[in-house]
C-alpha cells in the first residue's frame, strides 16, 4: 500500500508545544501535544526549559517516523517570537532561553535610547514600540553590555524557530518574519538591519537571511525530506488567508495576545500609533504588515478567575455560553447611558474596575466583560484598519469560538463583514503552506478555511 505524502510541523507556543502532520490536502492526520514545566534563569526568573524542548522535538519526530503509513516530505516550524537561543559554533546553547517578559534594566534602556536618537526615532524606524525584553534585539544588546564574556562566545543569536530548524537541518539561518516582529532590529524605512545593530556589532551575530519558503536537506544521511527555516507564529497564521483571499482584509489572530494584522496597509507608523502598541510585522514574502495588539487573552484568563470565584461557577461553562441578545441590549443601553472612557494605553478593558456584586448573575457579568473587552478590541483593530480599504474582518483562534465576543465584534463594526474563521491550526498550517511548492505536488485547496458570518439583528442596533 502506497504511503501518504505528509509534512510535519512543530508548533511551539508559550503554553502548549504541538506536533502536527498534514497530508497533501492539508488535513491533519496526526497530532500530539505536550506541556513543560518552566525552569529559571540565573536571576531566578522563569524561562523556557530549552533542553526539554530540544528532546521533545526529537522524541516527537521519532514517533512520526515510526509510522509506516506516512512518507515524510518536509518538516517546518513555527513558534512564539521575541526569544533568542544563543549558540556557539557547534550549535550548543550558551545561555537560557530568556523570557520575553523579563524585566529590562531602566538605566541600560535609558542609555541606549539616548545614544541612538531617542525612543521615538528608533521605534518609528524599526516599527517597534518600546517593549523592553519583548524587543528581542534589546536582549542581545543587554548581553553585550552586562555579560561581554558571553557575548564574545556567541556565534549566532537564533530566534527560536530557526534554532528548532537547526536541530534538524544543521544549518544556521535567519528568517525575516522573526526579525520583523517588534525586535527593534530591522529598519523598515531602509529594509535592512538598523544602523545601531551594525554599530554595536550585533549584525555579526546573525546568520544569513533566508526567505520563508526556503528549504534545506536534513542533516542526517539517507533522509530525503526537506527542512524549512521556521516562522514567527503570528506571521505564519496570516499565510492561509493571504493564499486564499485577494480582497483586502484584517485578521484578528486571538490567543494570549489578540493581534490585528492588516497586510493591505503599508502606511508608515506614526508616533501616536506606536504609543498605542501599534507596530509592523514582516510577512513571509517580506512585505510589511500593519498590526496592533492587546493582551486580551491574558485578561480573559484573569477576569474569568475573578468571575468564577465570585459566583462559584466553573470556567468550562463560559466556553460554550450562548449569546443572549436581549441581555446584551440591556448592557449596551446601560453603558451608553453611563459610558466609561478607555484608552489603549491603559492596556486593559474597563471590566477590572467593575464591582461584581452589581451583577445579578454570572451570565450578566460575563456579557458585560465581553462588552468591555470588545470595546478595547475595537480601538486596537481600528488602528490596523485606518488608511486601508479592508472591509472584511476574520477572527481566528480561541475568541473565534466565543459567540458573545463575535456578536459584539459585529456590533461595533457594522460597516464590515465579520467572520469567525475555522481551520486546522492556522499557525501550523501557515508554516506548512509557506513551503508548499517544495513538498506538495497538488494545488493548494480552496476549502481549508471555514467561515461563519456574524451580523447583529436590527433590534440590537436601535
From TrEMBL:
Keyword Cytoplasm applies: no
Pfam families documented for this protein: FGGY_C_2 (PF21546), FGGY_N (PF00370)
Domain named Carbohydrate kinase FGGY C-terminal: residues: 247-437
Domain of life: Bacteria
UniProt KW keywords: Kinase, Transferase
GO MF annotations, alphabetized: kinase activity
Protein name as it appears in the record: Sugar (Pentulose or hexulose) kinase
Lineage, opening ranks: Bacteria, Pseudomonadati, Bacteroidota, Sphingobacteriia, Sphingobacteriales
Amino acid at each position: 500500500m502506497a504511503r501518504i505524502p505528509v509534512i510535519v510541523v512543530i508548533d511551539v507556543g508559550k503554553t502548549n508545544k504541538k506536533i502536527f502532520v498534514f497530508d497533501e490536502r492539508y488535513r491533519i492526520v496526526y497530532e500530539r501535544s505536550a506541556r513543560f514545566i518552566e525552569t529559571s534563569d540565573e536571576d531566578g526568573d522563569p524561562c523556557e526549559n530549552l533542553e526539554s524542548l530540544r528532546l521533545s522535538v526529537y522524541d516527537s519526530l521519532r514517533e512520526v517516523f515510526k509510522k509506516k503509513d506516512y512518507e515524510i516530505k518536509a518538516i517546518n516550524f513555527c513558534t512564539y517570537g521575541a526569544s533568542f537561543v544563543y549558540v556557539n559554533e557547534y550549535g550548543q546553547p550558551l545561555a537560557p532561553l530568556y523570557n520575553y517578559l523579563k524585566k529590562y534594566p531602566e538605566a541600560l534602556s535609558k542609555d541606549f535610547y539616548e545614544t541612538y536618537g531617542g525612543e521615538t526615532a528608533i521605534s518609528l524606524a524599526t516599527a517597534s514600540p518600546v517593549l523592553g525584553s519583548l524587543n528581542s534585539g534589546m536582549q542581545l544588546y543587554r548581553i553585550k553590555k552586562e555579560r561581554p564574556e558571553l557575548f564574545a562566545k556567541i556565534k549566532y543569536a537564533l530566534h527560536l524557530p530557526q534554532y528548532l530548524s537547526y536541530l534538524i537541518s544543521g544549518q544556521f539561518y535567519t528568517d525575516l518574519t522573526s526579525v520583523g516582529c517588534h525586535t527593534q532590529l530591522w529598519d523598515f524605512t531602509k529594509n535592512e538591519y538598523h544602523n545601531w545593530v551594525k554599530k554595536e556589532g550585533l549584525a555579526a551575530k546573525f546568520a544569513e537571511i533566508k526567505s520563508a519558503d526556503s528549504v534545506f536537506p536534513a542533516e542526517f544521511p539517507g533522509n530525503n525530506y526537506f527542512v524549512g527555516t521556521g516562522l514567527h507564529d503570528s506571521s505564519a497564521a496570516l499565510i492561509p488567508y493571504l493564499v486564499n483571499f485577494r480582497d483586502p482584509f484584517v485578521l484578528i489572530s486571538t490567543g494570549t495576545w489578540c493581534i490585528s494584522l492588516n497586510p493591505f496597509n503599508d502606511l508608515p507608523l506614526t508616533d501616536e500609533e506606536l504609543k498605542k502598541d501599534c507596530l509592523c510585522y514582516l510577512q513571509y514574502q517580506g512585505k510589511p504588515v500593519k498590526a496592533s495588539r492587546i493582551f486580551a487573552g491574558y485578561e480573559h484568563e484573569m477576569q474569568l478567575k475573578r468571575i468564577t470565584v465570585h459566583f462559584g461557577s466553573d470556567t468550562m461553562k463560559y466556553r460554550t455560553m450562548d449569546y443572549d441578545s436581549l441581555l446584551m441590549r440591556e448592557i449596551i443601553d446601560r453603558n451608553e447611558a453611563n459610558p466609561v472612557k478607555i484608552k489603549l494605553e491603559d492596556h486593559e478593558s474597563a471590566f477590572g474596575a467593575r464591582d461584581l456584586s452589581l451583577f445579578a448573575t454570572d451570565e450578566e457579568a460575563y456579557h458585560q466583560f465581553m462588552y468591555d473587552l470588545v470595546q478595547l478590541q475595537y480601538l486596537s483593530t481600528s488602528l490596523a484598519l485606518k488608511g486601508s480599504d479592508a472591509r472584511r474582518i476574520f477572527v481566528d483562534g480561541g475568541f473565534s469560538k466565543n459567540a458573545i465576543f463575535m456578536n459584539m465584534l459585529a456590533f461595533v463594526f457594522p460597516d464590515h463583514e465579520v467572520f469567525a474563521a475555522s481551520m486546522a491550526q492556522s499557525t501550523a498550517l501557515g508554516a506548512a503552506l509557506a513551503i508548499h511548492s517544495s513538498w506538495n505536488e497538488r494545488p493548494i485547496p480552496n476549502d481549508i478555511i471555514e467561515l461563519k458570518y456574524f451580523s447583529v439583528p436590527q433590534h440590537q442596533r436601535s
